[in-house]
Write a sequence for this structure.
């Protein structure tokens, strides 16, 4: 026979101060966990959103970031003429070389320096990355020393507003437009003309990467193997989706940090929860005795108190998720040590993450409630009833 | 019975509750010490006698843009500069990407002047200056891969398209960092020439200067940057500490993140200790009434309750300090992939934790103590049904 859940709910309500304090304790632990994990998830999301499975990224074998690669103009010409590359409206193959560089710039808030990734592109790049859209101002004009910047970058770095003339490379460039890239890694970049950047950064004669648009997934796979097997090229090709998938390891330290925090904080919270539950048991010894006399088994007493503790933790878990939720609107940035530049992104408090957090809360409740529940069930009936 | 004994007996009356509170406070303080220690090592890198004399020169645009090697002579001519060493991040890979460690090419003539604090193995200096493919490796790295002096190893170039073979001619130990791999820049430069790498030959990522005194450092920084202003290769010159902090600031607002987590931790600790103390005093109201009835003044009752709360928190603080000392003895660098070299809380940090423990104890006892001491005897007696 199971003791009605109403019994626990009513008790928690009557003892609301104790309930509240314990729930807040659990809630804060859950909130810290959710916020740090939301940071890691936001970072992952920026990478996952960037990769298009039809865009093949050609780089030197073994490199981990675009910036580390270099591809000569001759090799670019060879790639351009391979079959399997989609044709644009103008009948030309959709393929373009890119240069990827970093510049050290000051951040707005704390005035500290950080590396900003800049990408020199040809106009074909916009056909391959439709998520990159100019939302204010206009597109840059090649050869006019103009750039467009992500709106997030303009918010995060000083001196990148419309009309500003930040110094990139040797001289100044004019910001003529803001773009948005749907929360992808391009949202952390400044885009300008490829050959202009080559000259500005002494990269004449070489690009960093070549991006080619395949007609379909099968063509992407075969084009990749053609590139890798061509003895003239000695290059590696992977889909953008795969490349950005690899970048998600940037969030591994954050996830480890979040897990460490969660473990240590939850141990502390479990001890506190046990204290509350032992108190809850102690103040109801008489009731426990009565329940036993009525015929409830020791097992149902255990069930009852474990449920109470779990409910308590769950209230805390929900409270924790609610305080973490507003972080969804917070933009932050961290270094991707792979690309040696800053990634700007939003925290991502997602439903699955909140689900994990609630499970985590339930586990804390179970662990914290089990021992007090067992002690309640083991009290002899006579002792319970004779107790004041 | 003295007041001290009274407090002790009371604190230990419900042993289970006290133990749980002590452990809860202990784990929270352990976390706090760990977080603050990590933050401290990040934002206050340890300084040594020679590190305050070192100055880094890099391209003003970014660390990834190289400077011409010809700058070395110009930098040597700057007043108060004793030595100038080129240094280049090679970023080579040993067998697999997961075997990540720092590897740099350095000027072999100046290296030993630049890092006088390293303790080198015997004969390392002579061999490094003699052999072109020589490498000097930190002790921790030697242990990690089981290398011994005389071994030949190959690093695969990632940023530079070439593989280089090295002979380990010596090792070094150092308190701050002993997991780097140094080899000769002339070897790298020559290999770059052979491999025909665009824009690499005759260039280097950074120059490191050694000043003759700490007072001369600001002047050197100013002198170097103005010397190269409005040239194709403008420089950004900064102290070693500022150079390191540049990497930390790239990570984002670490101080804000760790700071706010620390506040939450302290707050939860206060909640836990406070609610336990409230629970304890509520159960003992009758005794408080008796104390009053036999003439104990308000102040004494107040301090008895506060004393008990402070004692419990202090025990928690001791547990927290103990846990962090256990962590300090573990090889943290191994499971943080070298990102955190070690978490060794300073004595000041431990003292801070103990102090915080006492303060929190007093705060957590304050509300129940005032409540108990302020209550009239009649009220207290009646409250117990």
């Amino acid at each position: 026979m199971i003791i009605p859940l109403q019994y626990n709910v009513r008790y928690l309500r009557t003892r609301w101060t104790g309930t509240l304090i314990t729930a807040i304790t659990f809630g804060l632990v859950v909130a810290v966990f959710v916020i740090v994990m939301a940071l890691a998830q936001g970072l992952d999301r920026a990478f996952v959103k960037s990769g298009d499975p039809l865009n093949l990224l050609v780089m030197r074998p073994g490199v981990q970031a675009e910036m580390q690669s270099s591809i000569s103009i001759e090799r670019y010409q060879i790639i351009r003429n391979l079959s399997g590359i989609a044709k644009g409206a103008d009948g030309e193959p959709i393929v373009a070389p890119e240069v990827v560089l970093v510049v050290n710039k000051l951040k707005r808030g704390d005035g500290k320096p950080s590396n900003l990734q800049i990408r020199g592109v040809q106009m074909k790049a916009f056909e391959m990355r439709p998520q990159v859209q100019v939302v204010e101002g206009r597109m840059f004009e090649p050869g006019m020393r103009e750039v467009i910047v992500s709106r997030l970058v303009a918010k995060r770095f000083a001196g990148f507003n419309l009309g500003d003339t930040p110094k990139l490379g040797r001289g100044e460039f004019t910001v003529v437009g803001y773009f948005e890239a749907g929360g992808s890694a391009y949202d952390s970049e400044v885009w300008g003309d490829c050959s202009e950047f080559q000259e500005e950064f002494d990269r004449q004669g070489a690009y960093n990467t070549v991006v080619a648009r395949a007609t379909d997934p099968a063509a992407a796979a075969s084009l990749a193997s053609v590139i890798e097997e061509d003895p003239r090229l000695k290059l590696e090709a992977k889909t953008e989706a795969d490349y950005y998938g690899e970048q998600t390891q940037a969030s591994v330290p954050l996830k480890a940090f979040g897990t460490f925090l969660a473990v240590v904080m939850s141990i502390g919270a479990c001890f506190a929860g046990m204290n509350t539950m032992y108190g809850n048991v102690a103040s109801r010894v008489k009731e426990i005795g009565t329940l036993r006399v009525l015929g409830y088994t020791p097992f149902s007493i255990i069930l009852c108190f474990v449920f109470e503790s779990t409910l308590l933790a769950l209230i805390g878990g929900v409270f924790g998720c609610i305080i973490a939720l507003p972080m969804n609107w917070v933009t932050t940035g961290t270094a991707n040590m792979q690309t040696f530049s800053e990634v700007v992104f939003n925290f991502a408090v997602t439903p699955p993450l909140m689900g994990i957090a609630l499970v985590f809360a339930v586990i804390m409740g179970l662990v914290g409630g089990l021992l007090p529940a067992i002690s309640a069930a083991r009290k002899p009936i006579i002792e319970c009833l004779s107790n004041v | 019975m003295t007041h001290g004994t009274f407090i002790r007996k009371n604190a230990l009356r419900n042993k289970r509750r006290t133990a749980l509170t002590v452990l809860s406070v202990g784990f929270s303080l352990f976390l706090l010490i760990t977080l603050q220690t990590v933050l401290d090592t990040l934002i206050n890198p340890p300084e040594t006698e020679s590190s305050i004399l070192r100055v880094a020169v890099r391209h003003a645009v970014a660390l990834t843009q190289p400077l011409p090697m010809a700058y070395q002579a110009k930098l040597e001519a700057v007043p108060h500069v004793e030595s100038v060493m080129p240094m280049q991040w090679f970023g080579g890979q040993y067998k697999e990407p997961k075997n990540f460690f720092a590897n740099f090419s350095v000027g072999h003539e100046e290296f030993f002047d630049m890092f006088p604090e390293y303790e080198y193995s015997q004969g390392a200096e002579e061999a490094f200056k003699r052999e072109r493919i020589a490498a000097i490796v930190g002790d921790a790295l030697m242990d990690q891969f089981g290398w011994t002096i005389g071994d030949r190893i190959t690093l695969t170039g990632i940023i530079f398209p070439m593989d280089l073979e090295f002979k380990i001619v010596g090792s070094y130990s150092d308190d701050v960092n002993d997991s780097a791999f140094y080899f000769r820049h002339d070897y790298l430069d020559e290999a770059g020439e052979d491999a025909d790498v665009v824009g690499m030959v005759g260039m280097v990522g950074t120059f490191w200067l050694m000043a003759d005194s700490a007072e001369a450092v600001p002047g050197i920084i100013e002198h170097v940057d103005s010397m190269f202003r409005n040239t194709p290769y403008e420089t950004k010159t900064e102290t070693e500490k500022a150079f390191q902090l540049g990497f930390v600031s790239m990570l984002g607002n670490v101080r804000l993140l760790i700071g706010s987590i620390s506040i939450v931790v302290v707050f939860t600790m206060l909640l836990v200790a406070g609610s336990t103390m409230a629970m304890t005093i509520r159960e003992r109201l009758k005794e408080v009434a008796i104390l009053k009835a036999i003439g104990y003044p308000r102040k004494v009752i107040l301090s008895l309750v506060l004393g008990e709360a402070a004692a419990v928190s202090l025990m928690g603080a001791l547990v927290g300090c103990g846990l962090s000392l256990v962590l300090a003895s573990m090889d943290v660098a191994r499971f943080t992939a070298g990102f955190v070299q070690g978490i060794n809380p300073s004595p000041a940090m431990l003292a801070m934790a103990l102090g915080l423990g006492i303060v929190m104890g007093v705060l957590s006892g304050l509300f129940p103590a005032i409540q108990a001491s302020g209550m009239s005897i009649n009220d207290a007696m009646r409250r117990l049904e």
